[in-house]
Amino acid sequence: MCIYTFMNISTFAALADPMRLSLVEALRDGEQSVNQLVERVHIQQSGVSRHLGILSRAGLVGVRPEGQQRFYSLRQQPFDELDEWIARIRAHWEARLDRFGEALERRKAATVITTPMVKKKKGIK
Prior knowledge:
Layout: H1 3-6, H2 9-16, H3 18-27, E1 32-33, H4 34-41, H5 45-57, E2 61-66, E3 69-74, H6 76-114
Antiparallel strand pairs: 1-3, 2-3
């Protein structure tokens, strides 16, 4: 299964950076200005703007200009797509792990049946 088939790699690249992930977490509380985000993540305004630009180009955030200010918010669609992709991956691995568990149980049962009983000698535990 190829990751490129289901998700735009820029989504993962954008979210891989800890500061951008912090900005996404801050935006979970709703629309915020750049200055509000600067206060939340404790880096300079130029750094926040740069990271927001990357998140915007990846399609993760939207921007609403209002006079001199810019207000940023999360876009729902890319996170829905990410959730759908994760659900497919989860279903794939859960099915594989279920089959693996069943195979282990069958092997364990076969081992118990074919293993001869060993008598314990007195005094040996």
